[in-house]
Amino acid sequence: MENWEAYVRKVVPYVPGEQPQDERMIKLNTNENPYPPAPGVLRALKEFDTDKLRLYPEPTCKVLVDAIAKNYGLDSDQVFVGVGSDDVLAMIFLTFFNSKKPVLFPDITYSFYDVWSNMLRIPYEVRALDENFLIKKEDYYGENGGVIFPNPNAPTGILMELSEIEDIIAHNRDVIVVVDEAYIDFGGVSALPLIEKYDNLLVVQTFSKSRSLAGMRVGYAMGNPKLIRYINDVKYSFNSYTMNQTALALGVEAIRDGAYFEETRQKIIDTREWTKKKLKALGFKFGDSMSNFIFAAHERVPAKELFEALRKKHIYVRYFSKERIDNYLRISIGTREEMETFVEFLENYLQ
Ligand code: PMP
Fold first, then answer.
1. pLDDT 10s digits, 302-314
2. DSSP secondary-structure letter at 186?
3. Tens digit of each residue's pLDDT (9 = 90 or more) over 142-158
4. Burial class (CB in 10 A: 0-12, 13-18, 19+), 340
5. Atom of ligand 1 nearest to the CA of 87
6. CB distance 187 to 290 below 8 Å
7. What per-residue confidence (pLDDT) applies to 23?
């Protein structure tokens, strides 16, 4: 090894789901929204003045922060925006998880949490989900350096009751508790109202799933103004111009159109419930997902085999070769037609 290599910050990176360039594919592998963004997004993109691109974007992201605050009935100083919720979460790890005590998160959860912890040298401990993949609230009592979990959890899709979330927050008043609500709009109850009661709570959401803007990269955190100020201090110390001009303009349109949001998320919920019935009949078992994906294992056929067979037919789902979950497929909810093709394939394959 050359000497300089001893000083490299070596990390094991997060592996995102693949983005195949396959024209014929049914893409059910990265929990994207199968419907296009709200019509206003297209309009704003068409009308976008490219001369604006000479200029740096407005660093406080005011138009977008204001639009998000208005949507939730918050003050603008309760909102932080970033380049997808991955950026927001990374800034939160960097800002608040700065204790010698371990940060706590579930053993089966969003696989970016341990990547950030390792990269930033944040001590952490995982807490095992129970045999039904439920988070046990008591596991998060006691001294720690912070708590983070998704609700619904990923990749299980299972939702936790708001009362249990409040219990975890109430037991952790000395640290920051982060509820990652990437999938909350598909049937969950948000912890957002609790930010008025608990100054140690951050609720993180994204435009990537329920607002069909994964490709634009917009995420946000909501919490007490003091927390938001601290994240902004770190953001400005890292990269002042996070949100590009188009993300600001298009993001505003995506959050403004409440009717389109309701219509598309309801379609996804309906398709999810339809898919659950079909999968159950085919011999799959799964928790009661409240997200835009189903995490399912077949009673007979190994997940890896199904994953590969689907792939050959240009149907992409997600498979994690990780302990406890290596017999599960994570199946994103597409359009009704896409899910019909998916189910039809399984009906033939599993005969
Ligand atoms: N949190 C969870 C639980 C997720 O599954 C994802 C999607 N990979 C994210 C956050 C990040 O999403 P984005 O950066 O697109 O907002």
1. 999 999 999 999 9
2. G
3. 999 999 999 999 999 99
4. middle
5. 14
6. yes
7. 86
Determine which residue's CA is closest to atom 7 belonging to ligand 1.
182
What's residue 17's pLDDT? 86
Dihedral in degrees, nearest 10, Cα atoms 303, 304, 305, 307:
80
Ordered domains of the chain (ranges, CATH): 18-37+259-350 (3.90.1150.10), 39-256 (3.40.640.10)
- Taking 70 as the threshold, does the pLDDT of residue 246 lie above it? yes
Confidence of residue 1 (pLDDT cuts 50, 70, 90): low
Residue 99 DSSP class:
S
Phi, psi angles (nearest 5°) of residue 312: -60, -25
Span from the CA of 60 to the centroid of ligand 1 (angstroms): 22
In the predicted model, what is the mean pLDDT of the chain?
97
pLDDT per position as a tens digit, 265-280: 999 999 999 999 999 9
CA of 199 to the centre of ligand 1 (A): 24
DSSP states of 53-98: GGSPPPTT-HHHHHHHHHHHT--GGGEEEESHHHHHHHHHHHHH--
Kindly list the protein residues whose Cβ atom lies closer than 6 A to any atom of ligand 1.
Answer: 84-86, 110, 150, 154, 180, 182, 206, 208, 214, 219
By alpha-carbon position, which residue is closest to atom 2 of ligand 1?
Answer: 182
pLDDT at site 72: 98
Residue 219 tokens, joined: 């995420």
Q: If you measure from the C-alpha of residue 88 to the centroid of ligand 1, how many angstroms do you get, rounded to a whole number? A: 10
Ligand 1 pocket test: pick from 113, 206, 209 the residue with the most ligand atoms within 8 Å of its Cβ: 206
Distance (Å) from CA 86 to ligand 1 centroid: 6
Specify whether the CB–CB gap between 180 and 89 falls below 8 A: yes
